[in-house]
Amino acid sequence: GDIVQKAVRIRHFKSGPFSILITHVPQDVGRNFHMQDLKKMPLLQLLERAGIVLEEANQSISATLAGAKLVRQMKTDVGVILVDVRRIVSGNQGRPVEYTRAIYRPDKFRYQMTMSRIEGEEANQWSSIERVES
Q1: CB atoms < 10 A from the CB of 45, how many?
Q2: Backbone phi, then psi, for 44, in 5-degree steps?
Q3: Does an H or E element contain 101, and which?
């Protein structure tokens, strides 16, 4: 129910659009930057410049069908399956400071993750690799 700043950005590469980013940030955070800033800098940098200490991001990846509006924006056909990524970024004391929905054309985008096999007491499983620097 809070007031937020919403930005919609279409990202292009060579032959046309490959993604749409729809971001929402709390109004008090969004007052620290303008559309021109979003054109020049990644949102992550703008949040940090605003003094927000980013703690974690929770992300899900799914699929969605291209409807009329997405067809126009992404220059694709109705019913094409698109990659749908949603992310909530938390800052100081766990406060959500960004909600992003990114929609990608799968013919122009690939998601890759490295996983490692770990042995458990009851079963072996896969886990994403975490790097800890000492």
Answers
A1: 12
A2: -55, -45
A3: strand 96-104
Helices (H) and strands (E) in the chain, counts: 4, 7
Q: What is the C-alpha separation between 60 and 85, in angstroms, rounded?
A: 6
Instruction: Say if residues 10 and 20 touch (Cβ distance below 8 Å).
Output: yes
- Total number of residues shown for the chain: 134
H/E stretch holding 2 reads: none
pLDDT of 14 reads 84
Q: What is the pLDDT of residue 24?
A: 96
DSSP H or E segment with residue 36: helix 35-40
- Name the token pair of 79: 């019913």
Roughly how many angstroms between the first and final C-alpha of the chain, as a whole number? 42
Which residue type does 54 have? L
